């Protein structure tokens, strides 16, 4: 409720005339105690389920900085992943299944929250590692990716810049948002009769049917130029098994975020239990879901529209294929 302030107006015609101003005794105002306002540095929310590792006071100093200005990025989220340990724990299987680089880093990396100076000390380093940093400055998402040799310096600067990517929207045939749909950023090499596809990154839509797919190719720098040559293209692809592939070619070299929209057909899921004749679980291999009547060619590979999932990454020997078109 807004209070009403009444002011006694000396020009009010109802007043009989000027009156002497009342004497006011001088007094010293008593101090009023006020709670100190705490300044909160904005930070980018971490993915659900992430637990931050405590810094190592004796570890190597990492500093997240803005690539253009060199200014530190306060409260940045930094992920450190040793490449050798990640490969031994199943990172290659995740990449082959289309989970993407960010998903591998989130699963196998150690998560740290930098201080207000954008710094954190990390111990127990491997000879070769990958560092992923994200931050929030003036409401804008910043991101960077860096390969690190622990023998290089006493301090490692991780540069970040405006995070490029694609705003992905997925709806069903009725126009309603689809939650849990996965969009992949793929490098595609087409040839007669098929294509070779290399998933680079992936994201899953929320309740709004929307998600931001990071264009990590831009952050990989010169290395990405060797992956995307004149014989290949880059596309945002809706993961799943459909009568026709749902994909949109994109310009991966621009930092300007683009919007990609998909209408996903009515879909279900296929669950496959994998065990041997004695009821024991397999420890490796893949399950391939392909068009009926089409077989895998040992010289070429699975059929063009086939999708596969790793048995090693399955829970309780249950391999799940999401977004399988009904028909």
Question: What is the fold's blueprint, element by element?
Answer:
Blueprint: E1 60-66, E2 77-82, H1 83-88, H2 91-96, H3 101-108, E3 110-113, E4 119-122, E5 128-137, E6 140-149, E7 155-162, E8 165-171, E9 182-191, E10 194-204, E11 210-214, H4 216-219, H5 222-227, E12 232-238, E13 247-249, E14 258-263, E15 267-273, E16 286-289, E17 307-310, E18 318-325
Parallel strand pairs: 1-7, 8-14
Antiparallel strand pairs: 1-4, 2-3, 2-5, 5-6, 6-7, 8-11, 9-10, 9-12, 12-13, 15-18, 16-17
User: Taking all residues together, what is the mean pLDDT?
Assistant: 79
Helix fraction by DSSP (H/I, runs of at least 4): under 10%
Q: Give the number of helices.
A: 5
Helix-strand pattern, N to C?
EEHHHEEEEEEEEEHHEEEEEEE
Describe the structure.
With 327 residues, this protein is mainly beta. 9% of the residues lie in helices and 37% in strands. The chain is built from five helices and 18 strands. It has a seven-stranded mixed β-sheet. Strands 10-9-12-13 form a four-stranded antiparallel β-sheet. Strands 11-8-14 form a three-stranded mixed β-sheet, with no helix packed on it. Strand 12 (232-238) and strand 13 (247-249) form a beta hairpin. The radius of gyration is 29 Å and the shape is globular. The N and C termini lie far apart (60 Å).
């Amino acid at each position: 409720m807004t209070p009403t302030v009444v002011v006694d107006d000396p020009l009010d015609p109802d007043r009989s005339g000027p009156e002497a101003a009342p004497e006011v005794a001088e007094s010293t105002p008593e101090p009023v105690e006020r709670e100190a306002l705490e300044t909160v540095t904005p930070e980018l929310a971490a993915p659900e389920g992430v637990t931050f590792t405590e810094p190592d006071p004796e570890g190597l100093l990492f500093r997240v900085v803005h690539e253009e200005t060199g200014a530190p990025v306060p409260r940045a989220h930094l992920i450190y992943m040793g490449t050798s340990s990640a490969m031994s724990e199943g990172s290659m299987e995740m990449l082959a299944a289309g989970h993407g680089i960010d998903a591998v880093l989130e699963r196998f990396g150690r998560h740290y929250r930098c201080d207000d100076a954008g710094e954190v000390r990390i111990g127990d380093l491997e000879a070769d590692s990958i560092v992923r940093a994200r931050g929030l400055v003036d409401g804008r998402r910043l991101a960077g990716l860096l390969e690190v040799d622990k023998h290089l310096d006493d301090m490692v600067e991780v540069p970040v810049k405006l995070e490029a990517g694609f705003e992905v929207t997925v709806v069903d045939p009725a126009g309603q948002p689809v939650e849990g749909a996965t969009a992949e950023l793929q490098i595609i090499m087409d040839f007669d009769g098929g294509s070779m596809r290399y998933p680079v990154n992936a994201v899953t839509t929320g309740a709004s049917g929307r998600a931001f797919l990071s264009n990590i190719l831009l952050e990989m720098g010169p290395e990405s130029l060797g992956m995307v040559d004149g014989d290949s293209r880059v596309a945002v692809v809706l993961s799943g098994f459909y009568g026709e592939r749902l994909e949109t070619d994109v310009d991966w070299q621009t930092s300007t975020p683009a919007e990609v929209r998909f209408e996903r057909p009515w879909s279900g899921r296929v669950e496959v239990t994998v065990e041997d004749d004695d009821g024991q679980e397999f420890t490796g291999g893949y399950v391939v879901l392909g068009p009926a009547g089409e077989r895998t060619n040992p010289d070429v590979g699975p059929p063009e529209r086939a999708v596969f999932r790793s048995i090693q990454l399955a829970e309780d020997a249950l391999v799940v294929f999401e977004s399988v078109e009904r028909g």
